[in-house]
Amino acid sequence: EKNANLKIQMKDFEASAEPLQDWLNTTEKMVQESSSRLHDLPAKRREQQKLQVIRA
User: Fold this and answer.
1) How confident is the model at residue 27 (pLDDT cuts 50, 70, 90)?
2) Which helix or strand (DSSP H or E) is residue 5 part of?
3) Domain span at residue 35?
4) How many other CB atoms sit within 10 Å of the CB of residue 2?
C-alpha cells in the first residue's frame, strides 16, 4: 500500500517537474543568446567607429 502511494507521488512529481524543465531549457537558451550578443558588442562598436571615420 505504502509503495503504491510512493509511485503515485513520483508520477505527480515528474508531471510537475516537466514545465520546470522546459522553463530551465528556455532560460538557458536566452542566457546563451544574450551572452553571445554581449560578445558581439565590442566588434559592433569597432565597426561603427570605422564607419564614422569613413563618413567624416
Assistant:
1) very high
2) helix 2-55
3) 1-56
4) 6
Cβ neighbors of 4 (< 8 A, separation 6 or more) are none
Q: Name the domain count of the chain.
A: 1
- Is 39 a residue whose pLDDT tops 80? no
Q: How far is CA 47 from the centre of its chain?
A: 28
pTM of the shown model: 0.45
Q: Could you give the percent of the chain with pLDDT greater than 90?
A: 18
- Distance (Å, rounded) from C-alpha 56 to C-alpha 53? 5
Distance in angstroms (rounded) separating the CA atoms of residues 31 and 44: 20
